[in-house]
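Give me structure tokens for this 270-residue protein.
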Amino acid sequence: MSERDLDVNALKMYSFLVFSKLEGAVTSGMIHLGDRLGLYGALASSPAAVSCAQLAGKTSLHERWVQEWLHNQAAARLIEVSIEENGNELYSLTPEAAVVLADENHPAFGMGMFHRLPQTMESLKALPESFKTGLGYDYDSYGPEGAAGIERSFEPWSRSYLLPVVLPALDGAVERLTAGAQVADIGCGAGGAAVRMATAFPRSVVTGYDISRFALDRAVAKKAEQQLSNVSFVDPRTNPLPEDESLDLITAFDCIHDMTHPQAVMGAIR
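Here you go.
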């Protein structure tokens, strides 16, 4: 193709489109840092807009680096900027931004997926081989931080909706759980939902199933912290679902679509 065949305006627009994706990747990294370094939390907890120096002092970070981060976040329209009469810049979060970026108790909290961003990007090194072999990766390929990120993604929903909304919507579930039921939580991850059910319904026995050892480690630690005796966590490859129809309730929260063999899992549940 010769230079004469190119539409210059279309070329400019397409170049802009491509490089805008890089802009998003860089900003995603800055979002990860804002979460990891407590910058969003510090902004959210400030009663008024703060200067760069104030934010750096509040987070014990170097002011020069905080300034660069603030400029990125302002350019990405993730934080608010106001300029005083003396020219000083002040930064803040809208109430909605504070929820998404800093409130782990709200179902709209969005930092879980950014938590494991370094591990996600690290997988790029191995993906060329996957393209050749067709082989993928399991969750443990992302290490302990991968499990932590998934937990932070799921917990706000579980905390907000599982007990007050989801279980009451299942006909007879709450009554059965209150009386005492055998429960299996498939793809339990770090155990948040299983622990929550075991705590709310002490007469029930809950077993969480997951193949990620990092997630199971977090689940077992959560059980120990809560000192629960009616919940346990196992790997279904060594401890499969019982086949004697002894289970009263089987749950699978936001996980079937991520499984390598979802039909086999659904078959085991049936």
